[in-house]
Amino acid sequence: MPQKRRRFQAKTYNEINLTNLIDTLFFLLIIFMITAPLLEYSVDVTPPEMNADPIKPDSDSKIINVKADGSIVYDRKTVTEAELQIVLSRIEQQSGRDTVIFLRGDRDLNYGTVMNVMRLIRAAGFRNVNLVMQEEAK
Q: How many CA atoms lie within 13 A of 34 on its CB side?
């Protein structure tokens, strides 16, 4: 019987094509780079308006939000004042007192509520505390 010859020969590939994997990796990296900064500002807090120089949080800074109902949000989790003290002491032990703390308080909050959270931050030993404001409409 004559042996049928295949039109295409089966070949084994000794190399993996990484181009598609690298393209996917870069795509995901870009998506995460765009969405990561937006996650912190997903907490529903509307700071008061004021003309001030813009500030940019860096990777070492921490953001504490105080919502209109007076609840404190750190790292997208609602915490009590006692839990905030524990979190602040951990931050102070890990990264030191030079860490910049950004405090975002809702515009409808009582002044005393924001100052109470500021007192907790200062009692933990942090001296570089910034109050976050919105830019005034022109």
A: 6
| CATH assignment at residue 97 | 3.30.420.270
Residue range of the domain that includes 94 = 43-131
Residue-level pLDDT, tens digit, the chain, 138 residues: 566 666 666 677 777 788 888 999 999 999 888 877 666 555 555 555 556 566 666 667 888 888 888 889 988 888 998 999 998 888 888 887 778 888 888 878 888 888 888 888 888 888 888 777 766 666
The reported pTM is 0.59
Does some domain include residue 85? yes
Domain membership of residue 77 (yes or no) is yes
> Is residue 56 a part of any domain in this protein?
yes
